[in-house]
Amino acid sequence: MAQARGASSDRRKWIIGIAAVVVVAALVIGGVIWTIADRNKTEGQIIDPGRTTSSLAGDVTQKRDGVVVTVGKPGAKASIDVYADFLCPICGQFEKTYKSQIEQAINDGKLQVRYHMVPLLNDRSDPPGYSLDSANAALAAADAGKFLQFHDALFANQPEEGKRGYDKAQLIKLGQDVGITDPAFARTVDAGTYDQQLNAAFQQIENDPKLAQDFGNGQSGFGTPTVTANGAIVSWQDRGWLTKITG
């Protein structure tokens, strides 16, 4: 009887052990599946274009010059340069906080904004390359007169750093949804037409001492977002910075 009880006990321990292994394996597999799904949650998504008609005044121009896009009215009293990356979460916060104020100043004829979309975080999406692809697509949108609409939609639907961005097909669809009808837009996005120019400009920006900032702990360099006015870096964390510039 003692041997039978011992054998039964061993079987129970064996069954419990197997069950525990199965549970752990299920949790691991489930965690892996969830992680992959979370990382790739932008896959197949349609980027919400939001408003397809901009709230910009009719006499506001959007013009690309190289890899810089200038938005504003001719003769605006003040101008700023904004350096940003579509993947940068702090850039997203900057846009969320100041977008309306900047747009109002543009409409009032007080401000021109020169946008520099830089591929600073190009290796920080999975797969890498979203920062450059989105910057190139934004320049293509500028060629079609839809830069700010495209720009705003990408920040409003910003993917997470370290995860999947949007692929070229999704960027092309967004362009169509904000009103771009010229087939040259899709060709430019697919070909990465402005990639080389964007990378060359980014190298110059990174090495420009006027754009270097002190990040503390002995670290300094270029980071996004960076805002400059009259050649000097603006402390945009100061809520009154735009009023000081536009008067």
UniProtKB/TrEMBL annotation:
Name of the protein: Thioredoxin
Pfam family for this entry, one: Thioredoxin_4
Organism superkingdom: Bacteria
GO MF terms, alphabetically ordered: oxidoreductase activity
Record's keyword annotation contains Transmembrane: yes
Keywords: Disulfide bond, Membrane, Oxidoreductase, Redox-active center, Signal, Transmembrane, Transmembrane helix
Domain Thioredoxin-like fold: 69-236
TM helices/strands, residue ranges: 14-37
UniProt record similarity statement: Belongs to the thioredoxin family. DsbA subfamily.
Lineage: Bacteria, Bacillati, Actinomycetota, Actinomycetes, Pseudonocardiales
